[in-house]
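Hello forum,

I keep getting stuck at the same step: I have a sequence, I want structure tokens, and every attempt I make locally crashes halfway through. Rather than fight my setup again tonight, could one of you with a working pipeline run this one for me? It's a single chain of 321 residues.
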Amino acid sequence: MTAADATGTNPAGVPVGRRVHVRVPATSANLGPGFDTLGLALNVHDELEVEATESGVRVDVTGVGAGEVPTDETNLVARALLHVFDRVGVVPPGIAITATNSIPHGRGMGSSGAAIVEGVLAAKGLLEGVVEVSDEDVLRYATELEGHPDNVAPAIFGGLTIAWVDETGPRHKQLAVHRGVSLLVAVPEATMSTTLARSLQPTEVPHADAVFNLSRSALLVAALTQSPELLLDATEDRLHQIYRASAMPETSALVAALRAAGHAAVVSGAGPSVLVLASDPAARLKAARIVEERPEAWHARLLAVDIRGGTVEPVPSTAAA
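Reply #2:
Ran it on my machine without issues. Output:
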């Protein structure tokens, strides 16, 4: 049965007891010059199991965010899930969400985008056989909630993504990252509000700065996919990081120190974490030592590119036959 079989309401559309497992990676957006366009999936994941129940919304969280995030229908995962049901015209069942979170919150590693993608993918899995939700739909619904596709695209599709919006909605292109590229994310104790970071952006930038970033963004795609030796030049930025520096001085100082030592360091997303795109594993270890020698508390995480993106799989019933 599909939504069209009824009148926009279909209480029996999703069988009670249906369960799905969802796994979604962290992301780093912007990558320096690619503001609101480029994103990279990282091998840190949030996971959850969702079960269709008789009624209500219940969320149990372990790991990051436990005791802090909402555990009812206002939870971001639940909101994203219910958004999809609303968009396809199917009345949702009750929902029980069991989440195990590893992505740091408020650190520029795409935690909110990951939560949204988790909810959208969970809805896709629960709606299997009821309403088809395509990959393009997943990107569209997630972007509706996130506001822009640069974080949700890599969370959905994995790897390096270029995201844009045209008259049909959000679009993306997934690219494979050169095997020589090694990732380091320096995570501080402090958090940063994405809303605050965006508020520091000017509404207009000098023409020369816009051209500068266009050239570096194009070069960065080539550096990440073909020529890692160009990463330092390719990650130069004049569009957003300089305007946000006053809100996170320790981040800006670490980026400057790493770049002065020859490492392609940028603010990860809205910050305050720092992403290093090293051209080889040895360079990454040198960058890690610089991070560890800082007077502030930073945690250097040696990561890899997640190439799978978000996944949703049915959970077999444990009921006796």
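Residues 1-10 have pLDDT under 50 and may be disordered. If your local run keeps crashing, start a new thread with the error log.
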